[in-house]
Amino acid sequence: MGIGFAQKAAKIMLTAGLGLAVFSLGALPQRAEAQSVRSSTGDAQNAVKSASVLMLDLKGSSLPRWWRALAVGRLARSQARTGDEESARVLARDAVLLMNEPGPTAPPPSLGPATLFAILSQAYLDMRDPQSAVQLANESLKAMQSVSDPVTRAATFAFLGLIMSEASGPEGARPLLLQALRDAATLPAGREQIAALSMITQAQGKMSDKASATDTLAALTGALGTLKKPGDIALTRAHAARAAMAAQDSAAARAHIREAVAAYDRSTQSAEMPMPERIAALGLIGLAYNEIGDKSAARQIVATLKQTLATISEPYEKFQGLLTLADTSYEIEQQRR
Fold it and tell me: Is residue 216 domain-resident?
């Protein structure tokens, strides 16, 4: 696998929101309720099991160390969500060791230590360990000091802002979101900017800062008109729908979902959308449907996601798609909304 492929996949990860940033718009469930949610079986746990089997081959493959590290980190996050905390903690340690292995090439900015620690921070937040989540977020921030790429900076600061809005509240989140806004403002209107603005809006909504969420949503909406390809429109409209719900604009959210679904259908007819982007778009659309309260439509999207996954043979794409299925299914099947 060459660096060119890695950079392309890194772009997909960023525009999908760091491998699908799955955060509830409500409060964290109490531990007893969380255990009840985690005890459920279904698509999420089955997908994690299948991804774990694929991981056995990926960990020992010739993929770059940082690629393997992020794969292990994403699996740790999905294990945490589906209740296997012991495996999640072991995988988290393995991911850090892999990232720290010496190697001949440095990772692309979006696939380096800052991204790994951010993903692991969310994993520990999902395990109801906010103290460890904050510590890992701080490790991500340290690694960010050497990152100059504005796309990576905007996405990572926005993602960390979402984490800190749950782990430490507004005081910890606001400085990160302000930095994310500054970095997003330097980006051209397009997929990467919209993905970052969506995460920022979601964090502002979680902090009940409706005024700021509305302002950020307006900036995001203004960037949508620059996109012409159906695949780009599908991804960004799904991001816009999640942002609109965070800003308490359900009418706009529903309109964005309709546009996302229509654009996704057009993209499949023209075959212009790479398979990893299709998977990411379906995951985002499923989450958006779930957040407006339409679980029936969300489950239909999951069924389409499963059918699409069945056509993928490349191991790493299959692995990433399985984790997208796991994360999306887990959130949809929760009953606390």
Answer: no
